[in-house]
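Notebook B, p. 112. Complex prediction, attempt 2.
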Amino acid sequence: MSPQYTRTAIVLHWLTALLILSTIPLAMYMTDLKLSPLKLQLYSYHKWIGVTVLLLVVARLAWRISHKPPALQANLPLWQQRAAHGVHHLLYLLMICIPVSGWLMSSAKGVPVVYLGLLQLPDLVEKDKALGKVLETTHELLSYTLMLLLALHLAAVIKHHFIDRDDTLSRMLPLLKRKAL
Amino acid sequence: MNIAKFLGLAALLTCATTQAIEFSDVQLAKSSMIFGYKQMNVPLDGSFAKFNITARFDPAKPSTALAKIDIDLSSIDTGNSDADEEVLGKLWFDTQQFPQAHFVASSIKALGGDRYQAVGKLTIKGKTLDVTAPFTVKQQGNTATFDGALTLNRLDYAIGTGLWADLGTVANEVSITFHFVASSK
């Protein structure tokens, strides 16, 4: 049996990875910009990407629940198994909480989210400046937490691929599958 | 005189006095001036906190009505402090040179029922254009509320020029919705 994620899981994983890794630097750049049409455009794109991530994560969760992921490396110490599961769960949690906190922030600031400039999402809360500020901080802190977890996620990948030289990464990136010697 | 007749007469008299009433004491604290626009196709609104209204309006004789509105543009609330600051600049309202917007009604006519229409001159940023604003008047005792709206194109007044002239980001159409409360003196 091939220890590999399903094609759907792989596509969804890399698509969310691409979107998250583009929207984080985008967020850091746009927030420091002086008010301009470009800034307003980038904010919209950031929100569209966030909503897309949210949709993808819902799809990923549905897929994950209905399709058992490949087993971890057989000889993996218990603490590493637990850490891997813990980080994965937290990543899912944050991939939901971060876009939702952004959506909440937008509503509180009185700026509805119009997905792709076409579909207006309902406001989750009433316009409330103070709440908007709190949600802004929440959105930011959650994003920093995500970055930290992504660093751990990546560190584990590097360790498995380059130090342990096992198949952890190729389960999600079949391209890198090691040839049996 | 039976009660029904008395009430009928009373109603008639009330009606007659109502029609002669002239509303000229504008209650600014109860009045509001809201604007709406689209940014990246997102509907947004804001308001002006400071404006002054000189008006005289008799629902029975709208043609004799007067209305003059002066809006302090720096009292704008867009909901975003950066934007509040930005719109005072040269590219937008240029409040240093043009601190106020003005509306003066040239004619007001009845459209039937509680509906009326004001035609007048709206001056913003040194440009004066004719505008038409339909509105309704609801009377309650010696107080009347005036609710109406009009739409203008911001670029007609050179509001948001230069890098902001791109209508894909901030749309041209701006709606202005007003709610005025006035009593008879």
